[in-house]
Amino acid sequence: MDIRPIFSALRRHKTAAALIVIEIALSCAIICNALFLINGRIERMDRVSGLAENEVVRVQLAGIGRDDNAEALTKADLASLRSIPGVKFASATNQVAFNNSSWNSGVRLQQDQTHQNLNATVYMADDQFIDTLGLNLIAGRNFSSDEYQEWEAINKPDTPASIPVAIITRSMAQALYPDQDALGKTFYSWGNEPIKIVGIVDHLVRPSDQGGPTAYEYSMIFPIRVHYNIGGHYLLRTEPGRRAEVLKAAEDVLLKNSPNRIVLEKETLEEMRQNFYRQDRSMAWLLVAVCVALLIVTALGIVGLASFWVQQRSKQIGVRRALGATRSQILRYFQTENFLLASLGIVIGMALAYGINQMLMGKYELARLPLYYLPVGAVLLWLLGQISVLGPALRAASVPPAVATRSA
Questions:
Q1: What is the per-residue pLDDT across 135-154, written as a single tens digit (0 to 9) for each?
Q2: Neighbours of 29 (CB within 10 A)
């Protein structure tokens, strides 16, 4: 098809054509960045935790006043919790994933380093911690019985903290010892004594986003038995269908053991994950709504302009039909015209998309927009343009030559 008549017609309608080009350009720029942000939120929500999320429940307690018998009471609590029907494992720990509050510590490879190699979160574990959370130990071993220490024992004023061994995540191991086997090597974190890596788990997430995406799995497990006043988290692993039943029984057991405590939270790990990513989910849906609204507005603009041009060009259409133009040729004319306008808008929109991304990178530490989002946005708008113009183009192609000519 000769496109010179199309350019000639567009020059006579510069304002309307420019408005459509600008609308498509803005839609392209915003949609490309919005799709990038949506994908980032989805990837963040889909991150692997390494936990048996569909089996683990959490009960969090807080004591009323000072409890000098917290250590003994915690042991009694665990014995009672492990005897509940349906409970496979139970553990007391200082923190739990998806909780937005974490214990963190700097990690060094040499004792005399002035700067840390990385910052990692610290999980304190008893003998059932690995099994309770369902962690996958991919190298090394679990702690032996003689390696566990009591929280109170390592926090005496005259006794410096000394943690001889630790289990760390694969991500942390690779960060500390890239291209090496970290098992058996040491690092420094608590105190001045080296901590030997005796085991490596596949995944274990941090409770919060401290450190950013790269530090999401910088986690280490110390063999320290904590009592309920240190975090107050009791974790229980059960069958998925018995979680509600176990939660109710666990609350009853804990309050029966000591009424001088209150239950702060009781929930499944899946519920904690849902709450943790609630804002990400809301933001993703908001961006989806923005994209849909922009596409609708753009489509309506294309339909409105094409309908207006069909009405204004009735004589031109009639003359072409009288001279032998087929319905398909009239249809292709309007589709080609829209494709050219959309292409110009998309080219401008791609440049705007890159500029917006650069601005967001500078102000909000957003990652660079991958180039493959630009053709995705382009194809989406090209398809939208062709679908939107199809209705007015079909109406133009269906006008009988005689009627169109008489309407001049």
A1: 999 999 999 999 999 988 87
A2: 24
**Percent helix, strand, coil in the chain (nearest 5)?**
50, 15, 30
Q: Which amino acid is at 116?
A: Q
Query: Dihedral (C-alpha) 218, 223, 227, 230: value to the nearest 10 degrees?
Result: -30
Q: What is the separation, in whole angstroms, between the first and last Cα of the chain?
A: 25
Report how far residue 311's alpha carbon sits from residue 314's, in angstroms, rounded to the nearest whole number: 6
Q: Is 245 helix (H, G, I), strand (E, B) or coil?
A: helix
Please give the structure tokens belonging to residue 116: 């840390």
- Whether residue 273 contacts residue 50, with contact meaning beta carbons closer than 8 Å, is answered with no
Q: Position 321: which residue type? A: R
Indicate the pTM of the whole model.
0.81
Of residues 39, 55, 27, 24, the one with CA closest to residue 372 = 39
| 3-class secondary structure, 345 | helix
In 3D space, the residue among 217, 234, 216, 238 whose CA is nearest the CA of residue 225 turns out to be 234
Q: What is d(CA 217, CA 185) in angstroms, rounded to the nearest whole number?
A: 19
Tens of pLDDT, residues 215-264: 899 999 999 999 998 888 999 999 999 999 999 999 999 999 988 889 99
